[in-house]
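Annotated sample (chain length 758).
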Amino acid sequence: MALTAAASAREILTRLHDVMAKRLPAQSKLNSVVNTIGEVLHSEVCSIYLLREGVLELFATRGLAQEAVHVTKLAMGEGLVGTIAQHVETLNLDEAEMHPAFAYRPETGEEAYHSFAGVPIIRRERAVGVLAVQHAEPRRYADVEIEALQTVAMVLSELIANADLVDSTGGGTTRPQSTAATHAQGFKLVEGMAAGVAVFHQPRITIEHTVAEDIEAERHRVYAAFDKMREQIERMASQAEFGGGGEHDEVLATYKMFAYDEGWSRRINEAIDSGLTAEAAIERVQQRTRQRMREIDDPLLRDRMHDLEDLSNRLLRTVSGQLGTAASMGLRQDSILIARNLGPAELLEYDRRRLKGVVLEEGSLTAHVTIVARAMGVPVLGRVRDVRQLIAEGDMLLLDTSEESLLVRPSSAMQEAFEAKLALSQKRRAAFARLRSEAPITLDGHRVTVMVNAGLRDDIAAVDLTGADGIGLFRTEFQFLVSATLPQREAQRRLYKDVLEGVGEKSVTFRTVDIGGDKALPYLDHDEEGDEENPAMGWRALRLALERGGLMKAQARALIEAGAGRTLNIMFPMVSEPWEFDEARALFEAQRAWLAARGKKMPAEIRYGAMLEVPALAEVLDLLLPKVDFLSIGTNDLTQFLFAADRAHPKLALRYDWLSPSILRFLKRVTDQAHAAGVPVAVCGEMGGRPLEAMALIGLGIDRLSITPAAVGPIKAMVRSLDRASLMKVVEIQLADPRTSLRAALEAWAQEHSVELA
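Output written by the structure step:
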């Protein structure tokens, strides 16, 4: 009967334990290792390659020519072995020569072997070698054999590190080679500026022993560590300062769900069964998680995997007794936290008086830690590559996420410039704050409606803080994105009711859920056709919602019940043709009738609107406008569709200007047609939050903007310094005979007429 992965690994580890205990040279131990693995797995070839002086050197083999040992060398990325090391991935091939990376080495005599399997030997999250097996018969190695190889590779990592056989892997807190000022770029996750010393979130935990002496004793250690970790999570959740059933509670609930996940604890137990210590078993499962993260294209699912990795780190520190993190040690001065990634619970442990910013090697806009950091008011810069190589503990850092910039060890001149910008920013914020109670009225007396975009319960406060006219776009999908499971109708109703009550008499426009495409949810079945090549133009938003009628019906009932006694504004995203709007409106009306028949209190009025993001809709506005109560132009998607340019593509991000004649003429045509039909038209998108672009929109006749809360002050200041009638004439003249862009002309006009664009 075939051995299980645990039994195969245990037999190998038992024999390796004896080998490692002997007083033998490292080379002799490696020779014994390849023989042992080959015998247990009945593999004709077993080889170990180690990273030396930047190349992978054949160190020991059973089955290949012995003359090739220390002679055959492969660069990182070269051949199958180099590919495994470079990508830290496993290969399992029935015909090795068919793989595009295959590189023939005649001195090894490997031409006699068809099948090939190799796993990386990992030390401190990078490959320091490769363990490979080969067989003459063309066959793929069984999963149990691959599992055994991966477990053995982990033990080999300890052996070769103790014998100092591989290149140094460095450390997260060692000083970089250069002490000069340097600059790093990242991706803005949470807006803000911050100055402070670099503090590494987590010192590296070195696993000293990988092979267990007593499996039951190791199992008991893991059980105890799980109990202790869960107590910490429960205590943290009860002490969290958010309360009120907000998204942060949902974040912590998801986090707790992982902490109690039986599948995770079972996998660790299985690793212990194979003969690993508690620490090594946790790390073994964590390695699998990292491997899965590399293979996952879905950013939301990848973020959930980050939560699991955060818990693995916590469990590893608990079981090893190495509990010291920067949070537990305490921040002694203004600090900027450095981490590969963070879980939400770990961020909550920090002293918010001292924590000024966060820099992550990874991170995304939808990650749980980003949501929590936004609520804490902590700026976060993500996707900063090689951050551990650039920064040392205690380095001075200047963080400016609006510029997506991190200055490391800045010169005195850099610090002065940063402090001047920070002071100016604070001064401007104070000036904008004074406009909170002032209405956005132009110099010639025209009232512009300035609202905010929102998506979280905590965003409601921004309406009062900025003096905005309401919420012009409430993104209901955020509740779906931060939840581990599909939000129940009652949870949706509570959120929508809280939003309506939070803004008082002011207006709220709820956009129905915009998921799918690049905002896929792991708990919803994916389309049978698999990954979409163009997710932004794929099966998303209203298209998906109409197909999944149950999801939209639940949201409709939740919104209608929440809006009892009030005016309820409902907006459908990504409407491409009028019939899609008709179907969505009919679905809502059917739910209204269903609730009314059961005696539920109804909204005083339901107003239905459409988002114009798909250019095709502009060609049938004459058919749509008689049916809608309002129209909202989503400039982010509209721009990329008009230009056929992916806004996330780095080469295209700045290529097409919002102030180009094509965009402005399109918007002018839509606006004029909507106003002629008596339909209010608004712009919700990044374009409306930039003073010069917003000025151009007002010049087109658009007088309703929904923007990020941080932009309300600057937009109000611009509006109050503007003569609308004069501007509209200038824009009309410019569009009649345009240059490449109207940007220069509008900037010159604004400067000449003292329009505030700061």
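Annotation: The first strand starts at residue 45 and ends at 52.
Annotation: The first helix runs from residue 5 to 21.
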